[in-house]
Amino acid sequence: MREKFRQGGGEALADHEILEMLLFYSIPRINTNETAHRLIDHFGGLSGVLSAKRHELTAVPGVGAQSADLICLMAELYRRAEAEDSKTPRYFKDLDDVGRYLVKQLDGLARERVLLLLLTADYKLIATHQISEGSVNESSVDVRQIMEYAIMAKASHIVLAHNHPDPMLIPSQVDESVSISLMHAASIMGINLWEHVLVSDGKYVFILREMLSRKPYSSLDKYTNKPKTGK
Q1: Phi, psi for residue 49 in degrees, rounded to 5
Q2: Which residue in 25, 106, 139, 167 has its CB near the most CB atoms, within 10 A?
Q3: Which residues of 138-175 are buried (b: 16+ CB within 10 A; e: fewer)?
């Protein structure tokens, strides 16, 4: 298998063969072919394997702690590589573009993680900050710290984002409360909270948009700056 990889590269290997070869480094001297097939069948493909949580991986026969650690490390390496700033500046054309970007950063994580995107007036990504990891609440989301990041970066727009590890794409009351607090603080500083994005199960939802759709003439309107028509 190694010789096949060295001669033809990754393209020479089928999905299960790539996983089989990876598993050999955590399960040496054992044929890992059957385990690789089990993982792919159980999770529906390589993407599902890399998105699986550690306890889900170890529930598959033949997958021990070391193999689960290795797969989770590979997934985190991929996620961080995707998150690295490109040499070409990243511009967001609309909120769906932001949503797709955030799915790559947050989907499949075992714990909740809160991210902050800082953007210029023309929607170029200045920086991404991890605000907290754990659960989203008023204490974990430090509005003052977020404002400091935004002011220091001279950001015109900000996007708050977090994930739900369970496949529940429904904003909680705390999610909405945090959104209102941050929107109010940003408005005072002349900064636009473009959205608060919730990611779960490979999908995303815009919390501010959801809130405004239920209360289109609420007090939220005075804080909401819609910088792009229809977004």
Answers
A1: -65, -45
A2: 106
A3: eebbebeebbebbeebebbbbbbbbbbbeeeeebeeeb
- Nearest alpha carbon to residue 165 among 110, 86, 227: 110
What is the pLDDT at residue 89?
Answer: 83
For 2-82, the fitting CATH number among 3.40.630.30, 3.40.50.720, 1.10.3720.10, 1.10.150.20 is 1.10.150.20
Report CA 75 to chain centroid distance, whole Å: 12
Query: What does pTM read for this prediction?
Result: 0.64
Q: Which two tokens stand for residue 172?
A: 């909680």
User: For residues 163 and 51, is the Cβ–Cβ distance under 8 A?
Assistant: no
User: 43-88 pLDDT, tens per residue?
Assistant: 988 888 998 999 999 999 999 999 999 999 998 888 787 766 555 7
Gap between the Cα atoms of 160 and 117, Å rounded:
6
Between CA 9 and CA 90 the distance in angstroms is 30
Residue 51: DSSP 8-state: H
Bigger pLDDT: 170 vs 226? 170
